[in-house]
TrEMBL record:
Record bears the keyword Nuclease: no
Keyword Disulfide bond assigned: yes
Domain of life, source organism: Eukaryota
Keywords, ordered alphabetically: Disulfide bond, Signal
Protein name: Pollen-specific protein C13
């Protein structure tokens, strides 16, 4: 009888412990931050990525829009960032948000490119914990030389359609 209780305890104990612990399937939010050197509002061939830019993942309550989660990170030498998030945020709206740029000549967030929505839940059918945010950008104070020609090329492609 004692052996039966011991075997039963050894079989049930791991199940009870794992049920009591919260799920720890972390997410990683990944993306890039760029400097819009042509002030085009999108990435061009003259776009450069920014090392040392600050980015934050923010999650807000769907109803009240109160901030319920925030975690900051920074970009590496290639302008890429990875921010680890341990919690599931199924009932929240989450965004990667630009915080700051180390470049004084490229520190104004580009309108419409200052945040990127990310879905941070495992209840959506996506098996991977990797979440990829759209690239976000800062606008350069003045367009660099050569941008006019680049933007004219984009316009030429539009006219061909």
């Amino acid at each position: 009888m004692a052996r039966l209780l011991l075997v039963l305890a050894l079989c049930l104990l791991p199940a009870i412990v794992s049920a009591a612990r919260p799920e720890r399937n972390p997410f990683v939010v990944q993306g890039r931050v760029y400097c819009d050197t042509c002030r085009a509002g999108f990435e061009t061939t003259k776009t450069v990525h920014i090392a040392g830019a600050k980015v934050r993942v923010e999650c807000r309550d769907r109803k009240s829009m109160d901030l319920v989660y925030s975690k900051e990170g920074s970009t590496d030498s290639r302008g890429s960032y990875s921010i680890f998030v341990n919690e599931d945020h199924e009932d929240q709206l989450c965004d990667a948000v630009l915080v700051s740029s180390p470049r004084k000549d490229c520190s104004t967030p580009s309108e419409g490119r200052e945040h990127a929505r990310v879905v941070l839940t495992h209840s959506n059918g996506i098996a991977s914990g990797s979440r990829y945010a759209n690239a976000m950008g800062f606008m350069k104070d003045e367009a660099e030389p050569g941008c006019t020609e680049i933007l004219q090329q984009y316009q030429a492609y539009e006219n061909e359609d």
